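Below is how a single chain appears once it has passed through the pipeline. First comes the sequence as given, then the structure the pipeline wrote out for it. We keep one example in the README because the format questions we get most often are answered faster by looking than by reading.
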Amino acid sequence: MTARPPEEHDLLHWRISPRAFFWRCMALAVLTMLFCLPLLIWLDPITWLLASVLIAVFYMWVFDEFQIWYRNRNTAWRLTNRALYINSPDTAEPLVLPLTDIRSIGKLSLWSITLGLPDGQRVTLPLVPQLRETKARLAQAIEATR
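Resulting structure:
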């Protein structure tokens, strides 16, 4: 890991949240069940429930929900007063994203944080635990650097 300057101090550490992944999957399953509700006219409730679950699992596979979890399960994020470090186990050095380079924080996601960069790129921090608190701490840190 890289040595940090003496004036830099940690504000927050986190890893991907199993709870956020579970609730995201549950939300997708409930939406699928509501979508499949008209099928209840022709199917018995058990078959309808099984079909809904299978369709939800299929959607999770299509939309890479399981891959997002698998790819980020060992990634650690560290927020300091100067930068956001993304330490993925498959890289030698962590990705360093200076807080001064973050132009915006996305507002619509229920499970992830999307950061806007000056060149128009977006960085997504998937399945963040305690999303509101993490987003607030991130916003405070960014505001303090300006």
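The chain has four helices and seven strands.

See the next section for the split statistics.
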